[in-house]
């Protein structure tokens, strides 16, 4: 009888399929080119004009761009975040809209009267569904009262009991 262990084998077994090493080469090329561009940027920003001309570079952008490029890059990144959040806020529904708490994928129970008795069969598995928000509100906050309906206050009932209790004692 063969038993299987839940512990991973050590050393790990190599995969059977042949994996491409192209991502490693692309990553190395991206890292190298980024490093070279950064070194050239720093040299352009810090070297005097005589040294740059001595290296054989006859034209290069104004030194003002050494500060403008990073500043514009930061502004573009911040603007991207701002636009992303603004679009998210504009596209979100109002708080009173039902789309804030229910979506198209909701699986609500059927309105059958026999829904509660489906699970009475001992072999039956109850159906899985989302709880309607009205039922959740009734359980959490109690039954709904209309604004015009007068509710009994707790203070008047407790005061009435005190008056009755005091009138019975001699």
Question: Short description, anyone?
Answer:
It contains five helices and no strands. Helix content is 48%, strand content 0%.
How would you describe this structure to a colleague?
By secondary structure, the chain is mostly helical. 48% of the residues lie in helices and 0% in strands. It contains 5 helices and no strands. The N and C termini lie far apart (89 Å).
Give a topology summary.
Elements: H1 22-46, H2 49-54, H3 65-91, H4 133-141, H5 154-168
Query: By helix and strand content, what is the structural category?
Result: mainly alpha
Describe the biggest sheet?
none
N-C termini distance:
89 Å
Figure out the total of helices: 5
Rounded average pLDDT: 80
Q: Which quaternary structure do these chains form?
A: single chain
Radius of gyration: 37 Å
Unreliable spans:
none
Helix content: 40-55%
The tally of beta strands, per DSSP, is 0
Overall 3D form? elongated
User: Percent of residues in beta strands?
Assistant: under 5%
Helix-strand string: HHHHH
């Amino acid at each position: 009888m063969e038993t299987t262990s839940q512990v991973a084998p050590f050393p790990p077994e190599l995969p059977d399929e042949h994996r491409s090493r192209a991502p490693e080469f692309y990553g190395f090329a991206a890292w190298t080119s980024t490093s070279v561009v950064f070194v050239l940027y720093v040299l352009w920003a810090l070297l005097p004009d005589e040294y740059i001309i001595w290296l054989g570079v006859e034209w290069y952008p104004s030194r003002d761009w050494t500060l403008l490029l990073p500043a514009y890059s930061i502004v573009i990144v911040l603007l991207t975040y701002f636009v992303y959040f603004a679009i998210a806020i504009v596209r979100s529904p109002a708080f009173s809209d039902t789309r804030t708490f229910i979506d198209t994928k909701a699986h609500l129970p059927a309105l059958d009267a026999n829904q509660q008795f489906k699970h009475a069969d001992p072999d039956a598995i109850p159906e899985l569904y989302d709880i309607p928000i009205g039922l959740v509100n009734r359980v959490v906050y109690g039954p709904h009262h209309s604004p015009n309906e007068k509710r009994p206050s707790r203070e008047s009932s407790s005061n009435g009991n005190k008056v009755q209790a005091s009138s019975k004692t001699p």
